[in-house]
Each structure stands twice: as C-alpha cells, then as structure tokens.
Amino acid sequence: MSEDKKRNVIHRILVPVTGKDTDEETIRTACWIANRDKSKLYVLYVITIKRSLPLEAEIESETRIAEEILIRMEKIAEDEDYIIETDLLQAREVAPTIIEQAVDRKIDLILMGIKPQSRFGQFNLGSIVPYVLRNAPCRVMLCSQYIKATDAKENI
Fold first, then answer.
1. Which of 33, 95, 115, 156 could form a disulfide with 131 if both were Cys (CB 3.0 to 4.6 A apart)?
2. CA separation for the pair 9, 39 (Å, rounded)
C-alpha cells in the first residue's frame, strides 16, 4: 500500500479568519499541517454586508481592516516559511460563504480558530462553527486558543 493511502493526504486547506486573537495560532497550525503534504493553503476573510445595502456595496473601513488582517496572516505564514493565498469576500452571511468556498475549491480541511466562550453558563461556539461542522464537505478541525485556568474560570 502506498504512503498516501496509509494516511490521509490533505491537498487544500481553508482557514477563515476574523481578526481575533485566535487567528495567529490557527494560521501557524495550518502552516504546520500544510507543510507535511505541501498543501495549498487558502485564507479567507468574509465581510458581512447588511441586508439594507446592496451586496456589492463597498465599505471602505471594513475593506481596509480586512486587508490589514490578510496582510498580517501572510506575514505570519511567511514566518513559518509558507506561502498562502488570501481571499476577501463580501456576503450576507459568513458560514454559508465558508461552505461555498470549501466546495468551489475542493477543500480537504477547514481549520477554524475558536476561543472558548460561555453563554448563560454553558459552553458556546456561536453560530458559524456549528453551521460549518454540520455542512462542510470535508474534515473540519477547530484550533482552540489556550487560556489559563484562572482565565477559564472567569469565562464560566
């Protein structure tokens, strides 16, 4: 049996970013995973457009922030000796856009950064992560940001 058939080869990885603290660790982890198989690494930022605006409306402040985030992700990947492809999209909702990109690009792995949160005393992943987990056409890995035990008690 060939080496590729013994283990799962990942050819394309999608990393949605948001500009939060978890992005850096998630990109570094994605580079580490991608390096094993020389995978193509796509980093995606989605600007959410309100329904009251046309979908093609350009919101300069949001676009500027998104571009800065993607440039920062490129620098982090460069520090890891990896080249990434970045994409900035506008959509009504983030989660379906992630799924569409995964399908269109034939993604093998979606890697998402999360920060443990609690809502009403319960662990909460928000709405985007569960949607992606339910609808992804591929594997999904969550990269949880490390928080100290004292910080975790404050979040509960």
1. 95
2. 9
Fold of 3-155: Rossmann fold (3.40.50)
The domain segmentation of the chain, as residue ranges, is: 3-155
Whole-angstrom CA distances from 50 to 2, 27, 106 are 50, 28, 28
Does this model's pTM top 0.90? My answer is no
For the chain, the three-class secondary structure string (H helix, E strand, C coil) is CCHHHHCCCCCEEEEECCCCCHHHHHHHHHHHHHHHHCCEEEEEEEEECCCCCCCCCCCHHHHHHHHHHHHHHHHHHHHCCCCCEEEEEEECCHHHHHHHHHHHCCCCEEEEEECCEEECCEEECCCHHHHHHHHCCCEEEEEECCCCHHHHHHHC
| Whole-number Å distance between alpha carbons of 18 and 35 | 23
Q: How far apart are CA 119 and CA 135, in angstroms?
A: 23
- What are the pLDDT digits (tens) for 107-148? 999 999 998 776 677 777 888 999 999 999 999 999 987 665
pLDDT of res. 34 = 96
